[in-house]
Amino acid sequence: MAHVSAAERRPQLIKAAIDLMTREGVAAGSTRAIAAELGVAQATVHYTFGTKADLYRAVMEQLTDDLIAQVERAAPEDAGFEETIVALAGACWRTVREEATRYRLLTELSMIALRTPGLSEAYQGYYRGVSEVTARLVSEAAARTGYELAQPAETVARFFLAGFDGLTLQCLYAPDEFSGGVGLRALVSATVALATGRLDLAEVPTS
Predict the structure, then answer these.
(1) Cβ-defined contacts of 87-95 (< 8 Å, 24+)
(2) HTH tetR-type domain: which residues (predicted)?
(3) Degrees (nearest 5) of the Cα angle 32, 35, 40?
(4) Whole-angstrom Cα distance, residue 72 to residue 27?
């Protein structure tokens, strides 16, 4: 059998882990099961990644990169500011609906990462990466359309993502009872209101 280098094997194992865990959940993602998914020896997983935590980190990074790429592709290049927010929200929501199992996997891994030494950095990297890309798209849309933001782009991005995360969880937990339309429209309206100054954070109670 031809030798396959670790560099070549790495993306294959990441894909096998994602395929397995999207079907059966994170708990099923043992190194033995992932190796069997790809049809290689269990030792190959340990040789390529070192530990299961290293493999999980790589899976989170791959899912994050895929999500960021989808967000970037969704950004229109010639729309107004409000239309850009609407387009981003709509494209992200379609991705959630069409790839619900991948979002569920990322959510599961994120919860595990919060309690697992060595994985918390991966979770922070995921959130930071998505936030930075969203803030950049908000900033670029404002600059392109001459839109003066009432709040920093980073604040607008975090506000949007926090609301979107909530809608995503509702969709994943109760897909048959949740359409998302009303909630998504409300989130877009609130995000635009924050960006334009119609939603004043100073008036929002914090205690």
Answers:
(1) 88/134, 88/137, 89/160, 89/164, 89/184, 89/187, 89/188, 89/191, 90/184, 92/164, 93/167, 93/180, 93/184, 95/67, 95/70
(2) 7-67
(3) 130
(4) 31
Distance (Å, whole) CA 68 – CA 62: 10
| DSSP of 36-66 | HHHTS-HHHHHHHHSSHHHHHHHHHHHHHHH
What pTM was estimated for this model as a whole?
Answer: 0.78
Per DSSP, the three-state class of 86 is helix
184 neighbors 89 (Cβ within 8 angstroms): yes
Q: Do domains 1-50 and 53-200 have the same CATH topology?
A: no
Q: Which CATH class is domain 1-50?
A: mainly alpha
* 138-168 confidence digits (pLDDT tens): 999 899 888 889 999 999 999 999 998 888 8
Structure tokens at 173: 């937990």
Give the model confidence (pLDDT) of 163-204 as tens digits.
Answer: 988 888 887 777 666 666 788 889 999 999 999 887 655 554
Contact (CB, 8 A) for 109 and 53: no
Name every residue whose Cβ is closer than 8 Å to that of residue 168 and which is 6 or more positions away in sequence. 96, 103, 107
Q: Which CATH superfamily is domain 53-200 in?
A: Tetracycline Repressor, domain 2 (1.10.357.10)
**Rg for the chain, CA atoms, rounded:** 20
